Each structure stands twice: as C-alpha cells, then as structure tokens.
C-alpha cells in the first residue's frame, strides 16, 4: 500500500518531469489508489487521475497530448504509476472549461 510520504514524493517527481519536458500552466493530480487496492489484480503502484494544462498541447490531438505526457513520465508507468487517467487541455480550452476567458 502506498503511504502519504510516498505519494508526495511521486507527485513531486511527476511535476518535475512534466515541467522539464513541457510548459505546464496548471497541474492537478489526485490519488485514486484506495479505490483499487482490493481489486483481484492489484499488484501495487499508484492509480492517479490528472488534469494537465499546457501550451505545449497547442495544435496536438488527444493521442499526441497523451503521448507527450507518457514520454515525460517514461519509466514511471507500470512501475510507480500503475494507472494514469488524464484530461489534457490547452490554455484556451481550460479557460472555456472553467468559464473564464480572462484567466
């Protein structure tokens, strides 16, 4: 089971890797591991969901955006991170989602 200190370290490493490889404008990561630890096939690793806003996503389709994130987290997927659900937005898309075009 993942302890809080481990999750904080994991969040820090994810944030560092994403910031090194792209221009992150907003990042929100949630730990959903607790909903999965009793599953029959659970073998460890974090189950995370993330909202990622980046100008680096401009002009990229959904598959290309996710590939950029997976490339940045190379080596962490299927190790420290068992599953990652993500929503990826450009700044303009994020402003529309939040209902604020002046952000």
What does it look like?
The chain has 3 helices and 3 strands, in the order H-E-E-H-E-H. The protein has a single domain (4-98), classed as BolA-like (GMP Synthetase, Chain A, domain 3), CATH 3.30.300. The termini are far apart. Helix 2 (62-72) links the parallel strand 2 and strand 3 (81-89). The protein has helices at residues 4-21, 62-72, 91-98; strands at residues 24-31, 46-54, 81-89. Strands 1-2-3 form a 3-stranded mixed β-sheet. The mean pLDDT is 84. It has 103 residues and is of the alpha+beta class. The longest helix is centred in the first third of the chain and has 18 residues, at 4-21. 36% of the residues lie in helices and 25% in strands.
CATH superfamily: BolA-like
Unreliable runs: none
CATH topology: GMP Synthetase, Chain A, domain 3
| CATH class category name | Alpha Beta
Query: Helix and strand succession?
Result: HEEHEH
What's the average pLDDT?
84
Helix content: 25-40%
Strand order of the largest sheet: 1-2-3
Determine the structural class based on helices, strands and strand pairing: alpha+beta
Number of helices: 3
Question: Which percent range describes the beta-strand content?
Answer: 25-35%
Estimated radius of gyration? 14 Å
Distance, first to last CA: 39 Å
Number of strands: 3
**Biggest sheet, open or closed, and with what strands and sense?**
3 strands, mixed
Q: Assign the CATH architecture.
A: 2-Layer Sandwich
Shape: globular
Domain count, please report it. Answer: 1
């Amino acid at each position: 089971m993942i302890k809080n200190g481990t999750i904080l370290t994991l969040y820090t490493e994810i944030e560092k890797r994403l910031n090194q490889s792209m221009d992150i404008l907003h990042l929100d990561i949630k730990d959903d591991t607790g909903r999965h630890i009793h599953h029959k096939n659970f073998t460890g690793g974090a189950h995370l969901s993330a909202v990622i806003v980046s100008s680096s996503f401009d002009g990229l389709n959904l598959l290309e955006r996710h590939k950029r994130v997976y490339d940045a987290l190379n080596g962490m997927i299927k190790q420290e991170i068992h599953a990652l659900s993500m929503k990826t937005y450009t700044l303009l898309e994020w402003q529309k989602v939040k209902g604020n075009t002046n952000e």
